């Protein structure tokens, strides 16, 4: 999901306008999700180079790191370092390690 400010989250994987298919102009998509057009443009730029599976893996890494930092792991620093590595690997299309 992509959250645009205080607007409702936009589910990327479930939406017909996923990362790969963004045919709407910024104005019409902005109206649909309730965000300003400049935020739509910024999110589009940030999504370049990402595949839906990579976004899912990165979000999973963030959720795991969040749980670990909040007490499930013995080292919060290592949990954060591992999450950063997994996010970078997710963007590059590599498998988690």
What does this structure look like?
With 97 residues, the chain is mostly helical. The chain has two domains: 1-48, no CATH class; 52-92. It is 59% helix and 0% strand. The chain is built from four helices and no strands. The chain has helices at 26-33, 37-47, 52-72, 76-92. Helix 3 (52-72) runs antiparallel to helix 4. The longest helix is centred in the middle third of the chain and has 21 residues, at 52-72. It starts with 25 loop residues before the first helix and ends in a 5-residue tail after the last helix. Residues 13-22 have low confidence and may be disordered.
What is the count of helical runs?
4
Helix content: 55-70%
Mean pLDDT: 79
The secondary structure category is mainly alpha
Number of domains: 2
Poorly predicted sequence stretches spanning 5 or more consecutive residues: 13-22
Query: Rough shape?
Result: elongated
Number of strands: 0
Distance between the termini: 23 Å
Keywords:
single chain; 97 residues; mainly alpha; 2 domains; 4 helices
Helices, strands, pairings?
Elements: H1 26-33, H2 37-47, H3 52-72, H4 76-92
Summarize it.
It is built from four helices and no strands.
């Amino acid at each position: 999901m992509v959250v645009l400010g205080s607007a409702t989250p936009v589910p990327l994987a479930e939406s017909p306008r996923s990362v790969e298919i963004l045919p709407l102009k910024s104005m019409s998509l902005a109206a649909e999700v309730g965000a300003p057009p400049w935020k739509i443009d910024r999110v589009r730029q940030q999504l370049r180079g990402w595949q839906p599976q990579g976004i899912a893996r990165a979000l999973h890494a963030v959720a795991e790191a969040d749980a670990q930092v909040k007490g499930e792991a013995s080292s919060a620093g290592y949990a954060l370092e591992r999450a950063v590595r997994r996010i970078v690997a997710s963007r590059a299309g590599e498998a988690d390690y």
